[in-house]
């Protein structure tokens, strides 16, 4: 028979307590798969998927249906304190947990229970962290941050953020009491949580940048926040004299940073920024750099080459860099660009020139294959800026515009206007059918006041276009253009040419009476 969940919970309070106790000891929050089942169970309850309840009086048992993509049926026997589920799992699956939790939550706080369940694990961690060695710290922090690793990409960002903030709370009592150790512990913690969350974060933010979903913003914020906190603790440590006992901890950081930066994928810019943060602020000495370089030499990835090239930049070793850029290809342009930007920001012109020279043959292909259409104009401007900063010749910069095509029109237009090459500028506007509004925002005004004859044919095209629209408003716009052309003609001493031209326009369109009126008002002859 049907029975409400409140009534069942009321009638079997003590049996439910036994179930809850069994769960408490059977499952451990530190074990990935078990913590995941608990989280899933909580989600099932939150989504209202548990129920309806049917009571089987013959066996003192309830039958509960869990609605979902694949509905399951759970049988809970109060007589025998036993459970069954149609999902086929022989241990505590999320469905069975959901039913027990649901019953328990009728008269108790499930949140409190979960908190308590997680705390027992935290106490175990406290004991192991009391030993002050890098290994003990790494061991505990790896376990603490483990739940973040198991969050599936399909899971809502809210779940990820929630799990991360739970871990944030759990780490507080683990932190050392002595203030001088706190920043170092915080640093270890941030590196661990960043590494643990990376698969989820990079899965959402990396790769196809066009994809958008509403939770992306949360994930982005999380990443920015972690990187900020990491930077803060590096600054806090860098500013203080080192404790003698901390030496071993500092040595281990190098491995942690290298592993995080090199052995994760996607979002290279961010990983590279973490790597630089440590090597520039925490270990800014040549000797340490050389040790690191020896280790990097054994790494095969192109990203490792960038890290080596980064030290070449810091140490001013241009010949080492020249060898490294041999590996540049269309596939790794994106990997090399962050280093180019870094060289630009340091005004290391020679380094930047070496990198850009190597990148140049692949820029065109990379643009077409990998840069999303919407980002291309920005990309072209960026590359042209880097070439300029690297002291490339004007000819070399200009020759690149042929590869950029339409994506580069804006930048090329600016390039031509800056050099007062208005005839070519006008030809570019023609060729790509740039609208009058865009041309006006670009170089039209400067061209008209400097070299009006260069843009006459272009203005003519626009004016004819307006006339074709055949309405009073567009006629006025055409006449406005004619006025500009008139001033330009006067300035360049082409009075006769102008009068012939405007008469011809009038003659050709004399049947458009509204246009004739507007032209009359415009007083267009010279
Ligand atoms: Zn199940």
TrEMBL record:
InterPro entries: Znf_SWIM. Residues 72-104 form the SWIM-type domain. GO terms for molecular function: zinc ion binding. Keywords: Metal-binding, Zinc, Zinc-finger. The keyword Zinc-finger applies. This is SWIM-type domain-containing protein.
């Amino acid at each position: 028979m049907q029975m409400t969940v409140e009534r069942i919970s009321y009638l079997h309070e003590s049996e439910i307590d036994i179930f809850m106790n069994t769960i408490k000891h059977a499952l451990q929050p530190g074990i990935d798969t078990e913590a995941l089942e608990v989280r899933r169970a909580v989600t099932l309850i939150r989504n209202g998927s548990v129920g309806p309840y049917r009571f089987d009086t013959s066996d003192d048992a309830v039958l509960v249906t869990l609605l979902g993509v694949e509905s399951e049926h759970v049988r809970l026997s109060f007589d025998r304190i036993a459970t069954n589920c149609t999902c086929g799992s022989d241990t505590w699956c999320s469905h069975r947990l959901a039913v027990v939790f649901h019953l328990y939550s009728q008269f108790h706080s499930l949140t409190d229970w979960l908190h308590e369940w997680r705390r027992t694990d935290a106490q175990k961690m406290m004991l192991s962290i009391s030993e002050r060695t890098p290994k003990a710290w790494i061991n505990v922090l790896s376990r603490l941050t483990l739940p973040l690793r198991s969050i599936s990409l399909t899971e809502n960002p809210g779940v990820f953020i929630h799990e991360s903030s739970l871990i944030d709370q759990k780490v507080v009592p683990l932190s050392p009491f002595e203030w001088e150790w706190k920043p170092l512990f915080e640093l270890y913690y941030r590196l661990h949580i960043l590494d643990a969350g990376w698969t989820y974060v990079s899965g959402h933010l990396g790769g196809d940048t066009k994809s958008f979903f509403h939770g992306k913003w949360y994930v982005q914020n999380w990443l920015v926040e972690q990187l900020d906190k990491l930077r803060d603790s590096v600054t806090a440590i860098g500013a203080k004299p080192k404790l003698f006992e901390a030496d071993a901890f500092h040595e281990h950081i190098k491995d942690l940073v290298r592993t995080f930066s090199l052995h994760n994928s996607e979002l290279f810019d961010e990983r590279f920024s973490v790597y630089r943060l440590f090597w520039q602020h925490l270990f800014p000495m040549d000797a340490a750099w050389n040790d690191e370089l020896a280790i990097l030499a054994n790494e095969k990835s192109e990203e490792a080459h960038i890290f080596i090239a980064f030290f070449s930049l810091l140490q001013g070793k241009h010949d080492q860099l020249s060898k490294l850029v041999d590996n540049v290809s269309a596939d790794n342009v994106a990997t090399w660009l962050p280093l180019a930007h870094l060289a630009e920001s340091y005004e290391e012109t020679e380094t930047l020139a070496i990198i850009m020279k190597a990148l140049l043959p692949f820029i065109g292909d990379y643009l077409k294959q990998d840069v999303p259409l919407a980002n291309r104009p920005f990309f072209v401007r960026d590359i042209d800026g880097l070439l300029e900063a690297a002291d490339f010749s004007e000819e070399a910069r200009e020759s690149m515009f042929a590869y950029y095509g339409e994506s580069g029109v804006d930048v090329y237009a600016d390039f031509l206007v800056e050099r007062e090459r208005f005839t070519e500028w006008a030809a570019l506007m023609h060729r790509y059918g740039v609208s009058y509004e865009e041309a006006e925002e670009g170089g039209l005004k400067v061209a008209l006041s400097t070299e009006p004859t260069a843009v006459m044919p272009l203005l003519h095209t626009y004016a004819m276009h307006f006339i074709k629209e055949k309405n009073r408003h567009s006629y006025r716009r055409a006449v406005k253009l004619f006025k500009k052309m008139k001033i330009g003609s006067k300035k360049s001493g082409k009075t006769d040419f102008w009068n012939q031209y405007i008469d011809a326009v009038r003659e050709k369109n004399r049947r458009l009476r509204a246009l004739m009126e507007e032209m009359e008002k415009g007083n267009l002859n010279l």
